[in-house]
C-alpha cells in the first residue's frame, strides 16, 4: 500500500504522519525535530509554556532539523493569542489548535502565511473550521489520549468528516502502528496524527518512570477522568487519578490562572508536570486507549521505519 501525499497549505511532508502535540512539555524540540528529520511533521506543545520557553523550543528545533515544525496549542489557555503570535514571529511552519475554537487565529495565520489546522470531533465543527479558513482538520476520536472532544470512535466520525469537507482530514485517536494507519487511509484520511507511540521514543523528554508506566499498562488501567478544563481526559490509573475519581483531588496551591476557565478541582497543569518529571503518583499520565499494545522504547527513526514497513505491507 502506498502512502498518499499530505498537503497542508504549501507544506508537503515526505510521510503523512504528524506527531501529536502533548502537553505539558512532553512534545518538545528534540522529539519534534526527530520526527521532522524522519519525514513527518514534528509538533511542539505550546500549552503550559511561557513565551520565552516557546521561543527557545522553536529555535532549538530549527537548529536540529530543516524539516517541518509546528506547534499545538489549546484555545483554553489564557496566553493563547500571545503564544500564537510568538510562534508566528518565530516563523513556525503550521499551528494546530483545539480545546475550544478561535475564529481570530485563521486571520492571524492567513496574514502571516501560516497554515492553521483545527482539531475537531464532528462534521459540524469541521465545516465551521473549513469555512473559517482552516488548511486541514484533525479528526480526533475517543481513542485519543489527553482531553477528548467526543465519546465517539475515530472510525465513526472519520467517514462523516471526510464526506462533509474538502480539506485534508488527518485521523487521530488510538493509532499506534502501520495497520492502524492503513485502516484510516482506506476510510479517506489524508494523514494521521500519532501521539502515544512517540512518548515511547528515546527522544521524548519525559521521565523514565512516565515511560515505564506506559510499558506496564494493561487495558484496564486506561480510564476516563474529569479535568478542570471542562473536558474529559483519557489517562492511566494511579493514586492521583483514583483520588480525582473519588472526589478527593489534591488542593490547588498558588494558582496562576493559566486557563481561561477552570473548575479548580485540581491543577491539571501541575498534575501533568509532576508526571513528566517522574512524580507519577502525584500526577496525571495521559495516554491513548491502545497504549498497552506498545512494548518497546525506540528511536524515532526506528519507529518511522517500522510504521512504513507495516503500512507498505498492507493490501491496497
From TrEMBL:
Keywords: Flavoprotein, FMN, Monooxygenase, Oxidoreductase
Keyword Transmembrane helix: no
InterPro entries: Aldolase_TIM, NMO
Domain of life, per lineage: Bacteria
A family per Pfam: NMO
MF annotations from Gene Ontology: nitronate monooxygenase activity
Keyword Endoplasmic reticulum (UniProt): no
Function noted in UniProt: Nitronate monooxygenase that uses molecular oxygen to catalyze the oxidative denitrification of alkyl nitronates. Acts on propionate 3-nitronate (P3N), the presumed physiological substrate. Probably functions in the detoxification of P3N, a metabolic poison produced by plants and fungi as a defense mechanism.
Matches recorded under PANTHER family: 2-NITROPROPANE DIOXYGENASE
Protein name, entry field: Probable nitronate monooxygenase
Organism from which the protein derives: Pelotomaculum schinkii
Amino acid at each position: 500500500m502506498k502512502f498518499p501525499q499530505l498537503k497542508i497549505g504549501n507544506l508537503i511532508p515526505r510521510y503523512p504522519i504528524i506527531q501529536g502535540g502533548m502537553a505539558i512539555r512532553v512534545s518538545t524540540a528534540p522529539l519534534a525535530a526527530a520526527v521532522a528529520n524522519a519525514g513527518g511533521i514534528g509538533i511542539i506543545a505550546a500549552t503550559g509554556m511561557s513565551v520565552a520557553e516557546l521561543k527557545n523550543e522553536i529555535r532549538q528545533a530549527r537548529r536540529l532539523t530543516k524539516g517541518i515544525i509546528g506547534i499545538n496549542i489549546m484555545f483554553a489557555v489564557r496566553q493563547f493569542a500571545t503564544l500564537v503570535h510568538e510562534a508566528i514571529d518565530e516563523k513556525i511552519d503550521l499551528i494546530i489548535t483545539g480545546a475550544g475554537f478561535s475564529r481570530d487565529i485563521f486571520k492571524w495565520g492567513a496574514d502571516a502565511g501560516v497554515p492553521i489546522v483545527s482539531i475537531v470531533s464532528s462534521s459540524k465543527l469541521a465545516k465551521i473550521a473549513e469555512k473559517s479558513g482552516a488548511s486541514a482538520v484533525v479528526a480526533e476520536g475517543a481513542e485519543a489520549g489527553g482531553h477528548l472532544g467526543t465519546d465517539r470512535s475515530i472510525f465513526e466520525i472519520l467517514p462523516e468528516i471526510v464526506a462533509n469537507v474538502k480539506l485534508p482530514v488527518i485521523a487521530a485517536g488510538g493509532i499506534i502502528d502501520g495497520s492502524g494507519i492503513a485502516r484510516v487511509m482506506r476510510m479517506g484520511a489524508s494523514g494521521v496524527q500519532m501521539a502515544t507511540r512517540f512518548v515511547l521514543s528515546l527522544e521524548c523528554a519525559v521521565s523514565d518512570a512516565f515511560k515505564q508506566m506506559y510499558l506496564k499498562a494493561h487495558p484496564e488501567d486506561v480510564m476516563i477522568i474529569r479535568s478542570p478544563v471542562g473536558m474529559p481526559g483519557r489517562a492511566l490509573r494511579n493514586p492521583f487519578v483514583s483520588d480525582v475519581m473519588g472526589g478527593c483531588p489534591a488542593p490547588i496551591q498558588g494558582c496562576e490562572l493559566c486557563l481561561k476557565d477552570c473548575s479548580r478541582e485540581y491543577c491539571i497543569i501541575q498534575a501533568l508536570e509532576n508526571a513528566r518529571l517522574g512524580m507519577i503518583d502525584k500526577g496525571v499520565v495521559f495516554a491513548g486507549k491502545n497504549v498497552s499494545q506498545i512494548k518497546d522504547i525506540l528511536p524515532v527513526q526506528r519507529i518511522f521505519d517500522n510504521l512504513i514497513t507495516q503500512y507498505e505491507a498492507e493490501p491496497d
